[in-house]
Amino acid sequence: MRRLAAAPVFSLGFRPLFLAGAGFAALAILIWGLWLYGHWFDLQPAGGMLAWHRHEMPFGFAAAIVAGFLLTAVPNWTGIPGVRGGALIALVSVWLLGRLAWWLPLPTGLILALQWGFLPLLAVMLGRDLVAARKRDNYPIVLVLGLMAGCQALTLIGLYNDDTGLQRQGVLGALWLVAALMTVIGGRVIPFFIQRGLNRPPAPVANPLPTRLLLIGSLLTAVTFAAGLNDSPQWWLAGLFVLTGSLQLMRLIRWHDRGMWRVPLLWSLYLAYGWMALATWAMALWHLGLIGQQSLATHALAVGGVGGLILAMIARVSLGHTGRLLQPSKGMVLGFALVLIAAGCRVLLVPFSSLGLGLSVVLWCAGFALFLRHYTGILLKPRL
Question: Where is the signal peptide (predicted)?
Answer without folding.
Answer: none
